[in-house]
Design goal:
The complex is a heterodimer. Chain A has four helices and two strands. Chain A is elongated, with a radius of gyration of 24 Å. By secondary structure, chain A is mainly alpha-helical. The two termini of chain A are about 35 Å apart. A two-stranded antiparallel ribbon of chain A has the order 1-2. Chain B contains 23 helices and four strands. In chain B, the strands form two sheets. In chain B, strands 1-2 form a two-stranded antiparallel sheet. In chain B, helix 4 packs antiparallel against helix 5, helix 8 runs parallel beside helix 19 and helix 13 packs antiparallel against helix 15. Chain B is globular and about 70 Å long. Classes of the chains: A mainly alpha, B mainly alpha. At the A-B interface, helix 1, helix 2 and helix 4 of A face helix 5, helix 6, helix 10, helix 11 and helix 13 of B.
Chain lengths: ~140, ~550
């Protein structure tokens, strides 16, 4: 199925591939059969959605709940910790960034793991056929 | 402007131009090359480029200015800017790249199989880009004015700065395209970090203590310069919006009440995923997995950047008031030790601790931040006009050269519009109720993005049932509500806090309209195929195989 003036939708990733191979002549390397089935993708999608929503809830709790409650509590403004900072200023100026990075690393690692385990099971180990010829761009 | 200052700025511009020319020599032969750099940039490179794109004048000058003027409340700006990349990582980066288009309107048009959606998205993208471009140009004028740069005959130094930065960036983008701009943005971000680290090191070695500075500043209430009835100037205490009495630097309340804090955070967090120039960058990643890893690195880099920016804003508040009496040049910029224009904070700090050379270095940083962000914005404008309008509708049979020329023309036109629109907005002459005019203008762009494109993108990725009709209706509702709120807040300084960052209302309303209308309209027929492309990883595996094959062939 193709859009007017566009490319077939199902080949979207192949067009990206075409962009990548600009300068590389296809000689068997791009003709291998490696696709994801709808069932595989659907299961992965559900898992990724759970991960995304779960980590987003943690993000919200950290940012809105913890952040605002500490920020607006008298204890967090009036007391001093770590070299003389108030907990609220320390949180806004430094602490939240550390929280974001830890959250991102954990979520990214888990999402990559899900992709690895749930997708690509039907693809065969890659064996190059033919010879790869690298073609120079026309100047 | 003295010779060393001119030399530093010219060296930075020459470096940027050299990178653009080098990229051109490596080949910008097609619109995909011009707009997406052939989709060949690696994780760290792309992360640096995204940071260069994202860390604009609002971040480099605006965050320090907001912290300088509003203390704790200014630090929230920075936290919100960084927090926005967490939802991008969780919900957007990987599927957006896997679907693999050239621009946000292209993505939405193909996801919803609708030219109506594409056109609506083009209009919104151009509006967001324009609103984002104007404060960058304003910051260019501010930096140039403080540096004492030359004036173009017939116009002010401020206006000359705007003309210089906008023209220089448009030239660099036209020459280098996305490849040159990506390299430039990555190098420029590295230089920005180096400048912040240098200023921090100079401060710390001179005995500056962060915690002690906050204690000193907090001994007195926050003050801001105001005009007196007789036309003079005096300092006025800032009233807290959270407590009775004056506001203090280290406490929340100088700028926002409880609702305002929440609304600001929501707007910045929701807006990031809808910023066209930043999201376009994910299309340049070689794969969806690379886009995910890129976002993690972006969070690391922006976290470090904003930590330093907040600290330097604090240092500026502490040191400038202490040094104003002994430095005539600083006394001219201040009223009883408080800067008239908060955006001068970082620049003044640079001059205090590094003399004229220090001022030049920080000004160069500001110029680089402006150049890299304007570059990204102009490229995003080019992608939507050139690809989504010209190539698809005006001239579907366009040759590579014609498509490239259309994109380049779009760059020039958008640069000209932003130049003209920013000329009247000199922060020294335009009264503003906000702590930083530059940061506030950028926040308006976030509000528009978070009320329109973000819900359209996220629902399109995660809910199969979303329809074109629903998305168009939702984007129209979001744009109308947020636009009306922002206009009201601009006209009436006493407008409710929610209207100053209206995405907190307009975003959920837009999402609700999208969901409601989608439920009573027809979704796209081949949504399963779309899902396989967007949530499958076959494209990633192909890209990885290709990378291995290319390496093997090269050995």
């Amino acid at each position: 199925m193709a859009e007017p003036g566009g490319r077939p939708l199902a080949d979207a990733s192949l067009t990206d591939f075409d962009d990548l191979v600009f300068g590389v002549e296809d000689d068997g390397y791009s003709s291998f059969h490696d696709v994801d089935t709808s069932a595989e993708v659907d299961a992965t999608f559900r898992s990724q959605r759970r991960i995304a929503i779960g980590y987003f809830v943690v993000f919200l709790i950290g940012l809105v709940g913890l952040g605002l409650s500490i920020v607006f509590s008298g204890w967090a403004i009036g007391n001093r910790v770590l070299g003389g900072f108030s907990p609220s200023f320390l949180l806004a100026a430094v602490g939240l960034y550390g929280f974001f990075v830890i959250l991102a690393v954990a979520a990214g690692t888990l999402a990559n793991g899900v992709d690895n385990q749930m997708l690509g099971a039907s693809s065969l180990p890659w064996r190059p056929r033919g010879r790869l010829r690298v073609r120079r761009r026309p100047r | 402007m003295n010779a060393p200052s001119l030399g530093i700025i010219l060296a930075a511009l020459a470096l940027s131009l050299g990178i653009g020319l080098l990229a051109r020599l490596r080949g910008t032969r097609s619109a995909v090359d011009f707009q997406l750099a052939g989709r060949q940039f690696g994780v760290l490179m792309n992360a640096c480029a995204i940071c260069g794109d994202y860390v604009s004048a609002a971040s480099f000058l605006g965050v320090a200015a907001a912290v300088y003027a509003a203390g704790f409340d200014g630090a929230w700006y920075a936290a919100g800017f960084a927090a926005g990349f967490v939802p991008v990582l969780l919900f957007v980066a990987t599927p957006l790249r896997r679907f693999g288009e050239r621009s946000i309107p292209d993505f939405l048009g193909r996801r919803y199989r609708s030219e109506r959606v594409r056109f609506a998205a083009v209009l919104i993208v151009e509006l967001i880009i324009l609103v984002y471009l104007i404060p960058q140009a304003v910051a260019g004028g501010i930096a140039w004015e403080l540096l004492g740069g030359a004036s173009i005959p017939g116009i002010s130094t401020y206006a000359s700065g705007i003309v210089l930065t906008t023209t220089a960036t448009a030239t660099l983008v036209v020459i280098g395209g996305m490849r040159g701009t990506t390299w430039n943005q990555a190098v420029q971000f590295a230089l920005l970090m180096a400048i912040l680290l240098w200023l921090t090191a100079v401060l710390v070695t001179s005995g500056f203590s962060y915690a002690d500075a906050i204690d000193r500043i907090d001994e007195t209430a926050l003050t801001t310069p105001v005009e007196t009835a007789g036309g003079g100037e005096e300092l006025s205490e800032v009233t807290s919006r959270l407590e009775d009495g004056p506001a203090y630097f280290g406490r929340p309340g100088a700028r926002y009440g409880a609702v305002g804090h929440f609304a600001l955070l929501f707007t910045l967090v929701a807006g990031t995923a809808g910023l066209p120039h930043v999201m376009n960058r994910f299309f340049t990643s070689p794969s969806g997995r690379a886009a995910r890893q890129t976002t993690v690195w972006v969070l690391v880099f922006v976290g470090l950047f904003y930590t330093l920016a907040v600290m330097l804003g604090t240092a500026a508040r502490d040191r400038i008031s202490a040094e104003a009496a002994d430095n005539p040049w600083l006394a001219e910029l201040t009223v009883d030790g408080v800067l008239r224009v908060p955006e001068h904070a970082l620049l003044a700090l640079g001059r205090l601790y590094g003399g004229e050379t220090g001022l030049s270095v920080v000004t160069t940083g500001a110029m680089l931040a402006i150049l890299s962000t304007i570059g990204g914005l102009l490229l995003a404008a080019s992608a939507s006009w050139g690809h989504d309008v010209y190539e698809r509708h005006i001239n579907p049979r366009a040759s590579r050269t014609e498509a490239l020329r259309a994109g380049q023309l779009a760059v020039i036109v958008m640069a000209a519009i932003s130049l003209v629109a920013s000329l009247p907005l000199d922060p020294g002459r335009v009264p503003s109720s906000s702590p930083s005019l530059v940061a506030s203008l950028v926040t308006m762009a976030f509000a528009l993005a978070g009320s329109t494109l973000t819900p359209a993108i996220i629902l399109g990725i995660w809910w199969k049932r979303t329809t074109a009709t629903g998305v168009v209706a939702g984007m129209a509702a979001g744009a109308t509500l947020s636009g009306a709120g922002l206009l009201w807040a601009l006209i009436d300084s006493g407008a409710p806090e929610l209207l100053q960052t209206p995405a907190v209302v307009a975003g959920p309303v837009a999402s609700a309209v999208m969901v409601g209308v989608s439920l009573v309209s027809r979704p796209v027929d081949d949504v399963e195929a779309i899902w396989v492309t967007m949530h499958g990883s076959a494209g990633d595996r192909q890209a990885e195989r290709l990378a291995r094959a290319t390496l093997e062939a090269a050995q």
